[in-house]
Amino acid sequence: MTGLFVRHLWSGLTSSSFLRPSIQIQPSIRTKMVRRVNRHRVPTHTKPSDSWIQKKTVTRNLEADAVYDDEFAKRKPVDKVWLVKEYPVRPWPLGQVLQWHREMAQPKMLNSMDSFLWARLKLDMTTAKKTKFIENVKGLVTFPHYFEDRPRKNVVLFCRLPEHMKAAEKYGAYMFGYTDVIKQFERGDVTDTNYEYVLCAPDVYADILHLRKKISKDKFPNPQYGSLHPNVDKMLEKFIRGKEYQSAKYEEARGIVELRFGIINMSDQQLTENFQALVEQLTTHSQTKAGPFVVGSSVYCPPSTEEFRVDVTPFLPDEEDVLEKKESAKQVVDDLIKKTTPDIGDDLLKSSAKK
């Protein structure tokens, strides 16, 4: 009995906490993780009412009309100081503008007396029909006072008369001749990448018609573009020394042309005559007698950032005279071509003009 009591006591002591450390086991508690999603709400946009749209449109049209208003264009400042927004930009005579650019190009200022003068001319592309407009125009202008601004263009001339060959040698044509030049085109030794223009004397035009597949349509001799002309000397001068121009539209009814017309160290008379030739050449693209084709002009001279508005009115020719001269000149050229080469008829001239 005593042994049983001792044995039971010993088992109780061995299982007590002071002999063996107790391990507290915490029950696993599952917690639900709540994810907060920040959802950005799409802001609501209120649709404007029709009355609001109509009101803004009317306001914009009124502001645009105020810029081109005739009364606004006639305003002239009385004092030496005036608000720019209340008066139109004042145009200046070309001589005054040239003087201001020379002052900026002096050695003490920008030291750029060999800079080119640029003309920016605005064109009226409207026609007699309100819904029809003139496409972008391009061409060549021959200035009375020549100046170098880029390498000369490679020009090919088909001719066989001695005076035509002398003229081609005088102006430095890339290729000129008759039989040898035709054979080089037939063999494919000369392609469109070798030249910019192809010219032709009227007496050999019928002999090069078979080369239409060798020469692109834009470069094939054409009386409409002046590359087929009885005056070979004038034709060579135009295509070798002439300056290329091409308009760009900033509105459907408005275009702009930018071109160099001289160097700042040239005389006022030379620059004025070159500017006159540029305006007259652009006027030949006019298709209506309603108003001038060139409606504005400005002159700038890099590296100077100054640009002055030029009064173009003294340089504008009569629109009716320009159109009449254009038609008469075209008729004279066609008559001379047919007289020089009887084989070329009206049908051939019309087909070449279409191309």
Instruction: Output the structural class.
Output: alpha+beta
Q: What is the overall shape?
A: globular
Query: How confident is the prediction overall: mean pLDDT?
Result: 78
Helix content: 25-40%
N-C termini distance = 137 Å
Strand percentage: 5-15%
Which stretches are poorly predicted, pLDDT < 50 over at least 5 residues?
50-68
E-strand count: 10
Q: List SSEs in N-to-C order.
A: HHHHEEEHEHEHEEEHEEHH
What's the helix and strand layout?
Layout: H1 2-14, H2 50-67, H3 70-73, H4 94-104, E1 116-124, E2 138-141, E3 155-158, H5 162-171, E4 175-177, H6 179-187, E5 197-200, H7 232-241, E6 243-246, E7 248-251, E8 254-263, H8 268-283, E9 294-300, E10 307-310, H9 319-340, H10 346-354
Parallel strand pairs: 3-4, 3-5
Antiparallel strand pairs: 1-8, 1-9, 2-6, 7-8, 9-10
Helix pairs in contact: 5-7
Structure description:
The chain is of the alpha+beta class and 355 residues long. The chain has 10 helices and 10 strands. It has a 5-stranded antiparallel beta sheet with strand order 7-8-1-9-10. The chain is globular and about 70 Å long. The model is unreliable at 50-68 (pLDDT under 50).
Describe the structure using short key phrases.
alpha+beta; five-stranded antiparallel β-sheet; 10 helices; 34% helix; 15% strand; 355 residues; three-stranded parallel β-sheet
Provide a short characterization of the protein structure.
The protein is α+β, with helices and mostly antiparallel strands. The protein is built from 10 helices and 10 strands.
